[in-house]
Specification:
338 residues; alpha+beta; D-amino Acid Aminotransferase, Chain A, domain 1; D-amino Acid Aminotransferase, Chain A, domain 2; 2 domains; nine-stranded antiparallel beta sheet; 6 helices; 28% strand; globular; binds pyridoxal-5'-phosphate
Length: 338
């Protein structure tokens, strides 16, 4: 039975599907996991995720490909990143094999919610790892819950890639140099809400963060990495210990190399931004969001075409989504059939 969803009307918002998968870690080991139909947890009121922020998440997608098969994109990278996050906030690690098994089981159980090929949609997979045991002193939990939920999401761009304006808010930092910016924890997002709303109220859909120490180097956007394309066609992306290493950025770098573009991962001065021919934000949700203007202290920097996407970013975007939908050969073994 297919789900009665108007695929072309889907956005990026919560929608209940048939089930999620849930595992519990107790006494040093993970259980077998269970598909749960009710989207509620019976959680202890002293759980460490509620009080002390032991909560990590991930985001990846599964696609119905041109050949009709469903494939998840680079789930192994998300598994490894979540393990790294778990270590940083002292949570039980989810082994990669368990993580990949969870992806297969939960996507398979919700096949009717995977948007059909041609709609531009995908099944968004949201893994969540939380400290669920009671603990009132500040210490790691003795119990962990690993959840993977899925929901169908629509094509972000109905027409061509649409550029957005970004703002630098010098009164806020995203992540300290030796803090937790490089791991995907809920607390980073709680801290980003205030500047995000401020940026939004000023008419900017995204905010760009500079390094917390000096505010001289570009770090990343609120929820996505920064990419600049130079006038002579080099792919440049910032290197910093407080950036969240994006799977999308890693993939686009590889695609850029495949297309013969030099790739530079290095510190990027904010003063260099005006030299870029094209700038974009990149992440799983949208792949690429072209950025055509960056404003800091009322001063505006314009980059790329005013009303569309630059040619290099457009090419990278086409290739990336082509691989995800099985239209272009998956030469790097990124797609896992479900
Ligand atoms: C999740 C996230 C990204 C994007 O990572 P992808 O793996 O490409 O989805 C970028 N920056 C931050 C801060 C993030 O949390």
């Amino acid at each position: 039975m297919t789900a009665s969803i108007e695929w072309d009307k889907l956005g990026f918002s919560y929608l209940q599907t048939d089930c999620h998968i849930r595992y519990t870690w107790r006494d040093g080991k993970w259980d077998e996991g269970r598909l749960e139909t009710e989207p509620y947890l019976n959680l202890h009121i002293a759980a460490t995720c509620l009080h002390y922020g032991q909560a990590a998440f991930e985001g990846l997608k599964a696609f119905t490909c041109k050949d009709g098969k469903i494939r998840a994109f680079r789930a192994d990278m998300n598994a490894r990143r979540m393990a790294m996050t778990a270590r940083r906030i002292c949570m039980a690690e989810v082994p990669e094999t368990l993580f990949l098994d969870a992806v297969r089981r939960v996507v398979d159980a919700n096949r009717r919610f995977v948007p059909p090929y041609g709609t531009g949609g995908s099944l968004y997979v949201r893994p969540l790892l939380i400290g669920s045991g009671p603990q009132i002193g500040v210490n790691p939990s003795g119990e962990y819950t690993f959840i993977m939920m899925v929901l169908p999401v629509g094509a972000y761009y109905k027409g061509g890639l649409k550029p957005v304006r970004a703002v630098v808010l010098d009164d806020y930092d995203r992540a300290a140099p030796q803090g937790t910016g490089h791991v995907k924890i809920g607390g980073n997002y709680a801290a980003s809400l205030q500047p995000h709303l401020l940026a939004h109220d000023q008419g900017y859909p995204v905010e760009l963060y500079l390094d917390a120490r000096e505010h001289r180097y570009v770090e990343e956007f609120g929820t996505s990495n920064f990419i600049g394309i130079t006038k002579d066609g080099r792919y440049v992306t910032p290197k910093s210990p407080s950036i969240l290493a994006s799977v999308t950025n890693d993939s686009l770098q590889q695609i850029a190399r495949d297309l013969g573009l030099p790739v530079e991962v290095r510190p990027v001065l904010f003063s260099e931004v005006k030299e870029f021919a094209e700038v974009a934000a990149c992440g799983t949700a949208v792949v690429i969001t072209p950025v055509n203007e960056i404003v800091r202290n009322g001063e505006s920097i314009r980059v790329g075409p005013a009303d569309g996407c630059g040619p290099t970013l457009e090419k990278l975007y086409r290739r990336m989504t082509g691989i995800q939908y099985g239209e272009i050969a998956d030469t790097h073994g990124w797609c896992m059939e479900i």
